[in-house]
Amino acid sequence: MRVSVRVLFAILLLQCGGVACGFSDEPTVNPANPNAAGSSETDSSGTVSPRQQRDESVVSAEEIARLIEGLASDSYATRIRCRDRLMRIGLAAFDQLREARNHPDNEVAVVARRLTRGLRVQWSTASDSSEAKELLSEYGSHSVSQRRSRIESLARLPRSDAFSPLLRLARFETEPVLARAAALAVIALDSRDPNDARDFRGNESETARRVIENNRREFEASQIELALRQQKRISSQWLLRYAADLRQGQLDMDAWAALIQENRSQLSPDDTGATSEVHVSTSELLSLIWVTAERAIAHGVPSDALGIVEANVDLIPSRTRALIETATWALQNKLYRAVIAMHASHSELYRKSPILLYSAAEAYSRTGQDDSAGQLADIALAINPLPERTDDEDGEVPPDDGGPFQPNRPAPMHPQTIESHAQAHIEIATQLVERGLFQWAQKEYEIVIDRLPIDTAASSYARLQLADMFGELLRHADVVETLEPLTQRIDQDDEFRDRLISRRFSYTIVQSNMDYHRGLLLIEQGQLEAAQPVLRRAFEMNQENIDILIAMYRLDGDEQWKESVAKTLDEQIREAQSEVEDTRNSMQRAGPFRPAKGELAKRLNAYAWLVSNTEGDTDRALRYSKESLRLTPQQPALMDTCARCYFAVGDVESAIAMQKRACEEMPHSPPLERQLKEFEEALKQSRNESKPTG
User: What is the pTM of this model?
Assistant: First the structure.
């Protein structure tokens, strides 16, 4: 490669700044109208003259190509004239300038890179939502990682707000890796519910929704084709293939399989490819495969999703983290055979990772292979071993004292190793709970509880977590059995209590939780009178847990009990209302202690949950619940409350729709699933009662 004085001079010239470089007076260009060229020739009002508009807005690709080649001219004047002309053309020259970034002539490549970076793109438009405008504010001035984060945030907006900004980024982002990320985000929108409005009470008819959906597909396809038809970038090929699907109204899996196969031949040799327009990284191609599979599931063809994943399972890197991410995604999308195939291909790595083993065990279990699932779960439990308890001195195992090795005595474990292994079991159990694998999670918690002394932090925490899991499963007797030894030890050991308090452990909350479930157990056993004082004591110790008050309200009793509960309930509703107003007023005042919107959402949700489960102004409860969701969207706990509010006002169908959304956001949650079942049964009963008899 030749390096001439002209290259160095061009670099210095481009870096010099000021009017001489032509950047300080360069107008902003709106990507919504890329052919509207910038110009430094304006009238006194700053408006581009009609003559200049005619001169710059209609420029052929051949002329732009000649100008780019002119950047390598031996004549300095020609190089400057070509550079300035390209700058005035602006985004109409973007594609060819972007390709010229890899020009064989180093001078052309240097100037092309600077010109593409120097184009002042107006990333947001007047039609963008306020959230999109905020995310796109000064987008081009941020680092690559910050811009990627903005793309991810845009992708979480409602589909109608996300599409145009993401397409704009896919079109004009100069970094190939970010253009591909934006393209994938656009395609992933297809997996969304087409009715993902902020309020889930749409009243359109099925015919109207179908018309809206068809118009949306036609609009998006046209926008993609208009923006990208001249581009040859890998990201553009993805989007143009997606546009073809939109026009057909269906997913063409054969075409996508062919495109993915073509991309496999474009894989970067060193798995980078971030700065390349002709190569794609393995992680990016895997993301495309995942998005395509998710679309197949959304279109009702899960077999096609499984096929595309199994055909490319060899792309998954032999790294634990990559395998965990892929297995987690496959399990979420019920592609169990793909996880089994991964286990077969990477069995050695699986045997070293409890999470990978449990993912394979889950896949085997979901496909009816319970024996294989159990064997893998046992292997996972044995990783991170903990010392066996002995019968003396509360089962404590002495740490390594540095003495001589005794062959008949198990080698003691270092205390830090014990703590590390115990923490690993707790973390694994927590993940298993989130995946609904409660039986295996129980064993992970219990191995810590059984093998560590009760007064250790790890054992105490494992008990609390296990009790929470039992509580969600309504296993009230198991909650009491798990927590009672801990509360008894705290009562007897002041030093232990002080250590727990130093770790922000609340004894009264634990005692309240145990009494709450003891009261629910008494109700299950039909001992309603005995349950009353137990629940009352539990609520007095922890009035933040309004579920206790709700249980008291639902518990039948004599007039004295009902009056007492009614009085307490009235006080709590008034207090909840007051906390909402106080928080709302505090947010209007400036200062360092101004509450965040999440705090107001919490107060609104507390009022809505209490009233919708008992009595009071249920219309206000619904308004508050909706407001909490506007403040902090997509929170499953808040959706759960909103569904209960709909149910309380008699809108059972909206309650079911909202509860389903909550269950989608937090799958495997027993309380959410129970409430959904309750609503569905109520709707079924209502319809049966409305049927004419005879």
Answer: 0.75
